[in-house]
Amino acid sequence: MDDLIKRAKELLESSRVKVVIGYENGTDGKTRALFAEKPGDADNLVFNSRCIMNLAAYVTKKEIRNKGKMALIATLPVMRAVIQLASEYQVNDDNLLVLGITPESKLIEFKDLAEVEKFVHQFQIEIDSRNKEMLDKIEKMTPSERWDFWIQELSPCFKCYACRAACPMCYCSRCTVDFNQPQWIPVPSHELGNLEWHIMRAIHLAGRCIDCDACYNACPLAIPLNLLTKRMLQDARENFGGYQPSLKADHLMSTFKPEDKDNFIL
Amino acid sequence: MEDFEPKIVAFVCNWCTYAGADLTGTSRIKYASNVRIIRFPCTGRIDYMLLIKAFDEGADGIIVSGCHPNDCHYTSGNFHARRRWIMFRALCNFVGIDIRRIKFSWVSAAEGAKWADIVNSTVSSIRELGPYDEYKKVAGRPVKEVAHG
User: Fold this and answer.
1) Which chain B residues contact residue A157 at CB under 8 A?
2) Is B53 in Cβ contact with A146 (below 8 Å)?
3) How far is B71 from B73, CA to CA, in rounded Å?
4) Is position B126 within any domain?
5) Domain residues of chain A, as ranges?
6) B149 located within any domain
């Protein structure tokens, strides 16, 4: 990863960017986000298979944006998130430079977001076989078995919102769960609030989730909450032909087709 | 279950279904009184959270109804709503919410009789399903309700 550090240093020295967002070694064998503002900071950059958090979650944060132009070290899911954020007018070429890392671990610098988009579109979002099996298993249950399954799975949740913090798409300055007039989601760690929080989270990510699993990886209790968004991804495919984050195309849920399915409507 | 009277909450749009339900009344068509109608500017305004809240508050069934495709007062609100319903229904089904309890329909301002049919058929199918105890238990509501009305 010497070329990564070298490039980050160059960018910071030439002041082309004010901050490089990447990974550094954390405690307990984990990696954490590094915000390199001086060329020397870049020495701590690492990249390996333990770098699983989605760094795109930081590019919408005021504290980072206010520093000036950002460079983001981005694996494929991170690039997807960047394109989705760009399509939602959260980032643009003026405030973000993408230092991509290909699935073959090669460094690739993109001139602009349009190039990132082109790169991203070479790959389909694929749900891995283990999760697919799990989805099928749940699908085969009866509705009340599914209900029991989810009440059980969600019961340890105490709504720490680590899933929300880790998600690059959850950038609303005021989230629905933070409203208390009316109180949409009951706050206590209780079945009802847990269920409603996870339904709300999944539905707000419908057509936007890029399946990076950052939410699942961030969950301190390893609740399989990513299954909900994966299911939404599949439903988007089955009903609307799926979606790819895209700079120009309409968002899946803010558009419609006259021929959308309506066999369930009386 | 003889004495069970289902509570139905209907989320309807101002321009078609609400006017349709009005027509049901002015035409003096008698229909089940189990439904509480909530009027919205458009089906496109109906947030998923509102439907969830209805179950929270003890509803046994929900009706969501608006203008037929191409009849929306705001041109495309019902088309957007339909997309959302497709996804919402799928998610509800996936988490085990009984989607037989959520009915979607298009009822125009001229379809007073259809509205009566929708309500009557919903009430009778929910009566068969019984009270939504699964959700009520989680929501901390008494599961055995005394008949009213």
Assistant:
1) none
2) no
3) 6
4) yes
5) 2-120, 129-252
6) no
In a domain, B124, yes or no: yes
Of A176, A260, A264, Cβ closest to residue B83: A260
Would residue B56 count as lying in a domain? yes
Task: Name residues 74-133 of chain B within 8 A of A (Cβ).
Answer: 76, 79-80, 82-99, 103-106, 118
CATH number where B36 lies:
3.40.50
Chain A's closest residue to B114, CA to CA, is A266
User: Does B69 touch chain A if contact means CB atoms closer than 8 Å?
Assistant: yes
- Placement of tokens 């309700």 in the chain: B145
ipTM above threshold 0.90: no
Averaged pLDDT, groups of 10, chain A, 266 residues long: 87 93 91 93 90 93 93 94 94 93 89 93 91 93 93 92 94 89 88 92 93 93 94 92 88 87 84
Instruction: Please indicate whether, in this complex, the C-beta atoms of B82 and A207 are within 8 angstroms of each other.
Output: no
Q: For residue B148, what are the contacts with CB-CB under 8 A and spacing of at least 6?
A: B5
Cβ distance of A265 and B88 shorter than 8 Å? no
Q: What gap in Å lies between CA B14 and CA B108, rounded to an integer? A: 10
